[in-house]
Design brief:
Number of helices: 6
Shape: globular
CATH topology of the largest domain: D-amino Acid Aminotransferase, Chain A, domain 1
Largest sheet: 7 strands, antiparallel
Radius of gyration: 18 Å
Number of domains: 2
Helix content: 25-40%
Number of strands: 11
Order of helices and strands: HEHEEEHEEEHEHHEEE
CATH architecture of the largest domain: 2-Layer Sandwich
Strand content: 25-35%
CATH class of the largest domain: Alpha Beta
């Protein structure tokens, strides 16, 4: 079933090898993972009605050629009116290689983690887990496991990172929703295990005391995929 869903997604987007964020999030939504409500505005398109979205909103440039949106000032946070959204879209569309803009509801802050995967030349499909922020940027605190993972295997992987104890509550903060965290990790491992994805990067994923939200997502497939 998962392979069929992924194959259908690739067929619908067969002109691409690197997918835009809203496309990847659409796939994640199909397989049951939590993503923010949003709309995509293609280059040259008018801003459609978005009354179904609740302020504040975030606007992000969309491009298959941009690896880091923050490095090029490609994100606008805390938009509280239609005018602010319009101004943000206009500015972001001017960024080199912009293919459109994604407008989403701003998610509440949570404990940030990274869940991803690659096809390793020696081991095949591999899933990666790490804590966000300084844990990954400064300490390279990540762990890898072979895909697919069982729920027990995902929990084992999460516990391999040095800072995992902050997820269980730290200095009075509540523990995260382990069921949601493990579920997302298992789902990514199962997607990677299909062999149809070259690289997937969910970064960051906000984990709350109840629930979770995938805030950014990247995915590519092998250039040899036919």
């Amino acid at each position: 079933m998962l392979t069929e869903t992924l194959t259908d997604f690739i067929e619908r987007n067969k002109a691409r090898k690197i997918f835009l964020e809203h496309d990847v999030k659409g796939l994640l939504r199909e397989v049951g993972l939590p993503v923010p409500k949003g709309i995509f505005i293609g280059g040259g398109s008018e801003i459609p009605p978005f009354h179904h979205l609740q302020f504040p909103l975030v606007a992000k440039v969309a491009s298959s050629m941009i690896r880091s949106k923050s490095d090029i000032n490609g994100v606008r946070l805390g938009l509280k009116s239609r005018k602010e959204v319009g101004d943000a879209v206009s500015q972001l569309m001017k960024i080199e290689h912009a293919e459109g803009v994604l407008i989403e509801e701003m998610a509440k802050p949570g404990r940030e983690v990274i869940v991803g995967g690659i096809i390793d030349s020696q081991f095949g499909p591999v899933v990666m887990f790490g804590l966000g922020g300084v844990f990954v940027e400064l300490f390279k605190d990540v762990a890898f496991g072979l895909a697919p993972l069982s729920r027990d295997g995902a929990l084992w992987l999460i516990r391999q990172v040095k800072g995992y104890r902050v997820l269980g509550g730290y200095r009075g903060s509540p523990p995260v929703d382990w069921q949601s965290l493990v579920g997302i990790t298992v789902a990514v491992s199962e997607l990677m295990a299909t062999g149809l994805i070259e690289e997937m990067d969910l970064n960051p994923v906000a984990i709350y005391p109840e629930g979770a939200m995938v805030l950014d997502a990247k995915m590519s497939i092998p250039s040899s995929f036919d």
